[in-house]
Design a protein that fits this description.
Number of helices: 6
CATH superfamily: Nucleotide cyclase, GGDEF domain
CATH architecture: 2-Layer Sandwich
Strand content: 25-35%
Number of strands: 8
Distance between the termini: 114 Å
Number of domains: 1
CATH class: Alpha Beta
Order of helices and strands: EHHEEHEEHEHEEH
């Protein structure tokens, strides 16, 4: 039986990220890909630390980070994708590098600086379901952020992922703020307002239907 000495269990928000199409990028230009990857990893590390996160591992094109707060983790993920999208605009089309990000809130085992367990594995599996430049989160993460951050979420259904017994409910993060919902509420409020609409700056002509009065006065 494995000794649990030095192990610590805790609940963490786990962020897992990797490069979409990394093999193709390496095949096309290894040196340029490694250079871009190192630049992007430094950008990501700064954002992780800025959002009170901790980089756990950074092997190859993969990154693993943990946060005490799911809100911080999702906010960090969105900032990563926005900054990398802006950085990609400087690169030619065949050199652009997009990351997929998966987030999960789960119980993990910490040994030294490393973390293990299903909480980590689920984050990695959810990441593989994200689009290039996109973010997917688990139901446990969604329940914590759905009313705390100004983003919309799309339910992608239940997924059976590798080495996890139970299906995982997955949500896609729509990174645009809820502008549409706000506009709709404002428009609805305007329609129901008791305040009459403002008069036009220029005079206008009202066209009324013609009423034939001659028929009313016939003998």
């Amino acid at each position: 039986m494995m000794s649990t000495e030095g192990f610590k269990r805790k609940l963490s928000a786990i962020l897992s990220a990797d490069v979409a199409g990394y093999s193709r990028l390496m095949r096309d230009d290894e040196e340029a890909t490694v250079h871009t990857l190192n630049v992007y990893k430094k950008m990501i590390l700064i954002l992780i630390e800025r959002n009170q996160g901790r980089l756990v591992d950074s092997t190859g094109d993969n990154l693993l980070a943990e946060f005490a707060s799911v809100v911080d983790a999702v906010r960090c993920a969105v900032q990563i994708q926005e900054d990398l999208k802006a950085k990609n605009e400087e690169l030619p089309a065949n050199s652009k590098m997009a990351f997929r990000i998966g987030l999960n809130l789960g119980d993990v085992i910490q040994e030294g600086d490393r973390i293990y367990g299903d909480g980590v594995n689920v984050a990695a599996r959810i990441e593989s379901l994200a689009d290039a430049g996109g973010i997917c989160i688990s139901r446990s993460a969604y329940d914590q952020v759905k009313k705390k951050l100004n983003y919309k979420y799309v339910y992608l259904g239940e997924h059976q992922v590798k080495n996890i017994d139970e299906t995982v409910r997955v949500y896609k993060v729509l990174m645009e703020p809820r502008v549409i919902e706000v506009e709709e509420k404002q428009e609805f409020k305007t329609v129901l307002s008791d305040t009459p609409p403002p008069l036009p700056d220029k005079p206008s002509i009202a066209v009324l239907p013609f009423d034939n009065l001659s028929t009313k006065f016939r003998a």
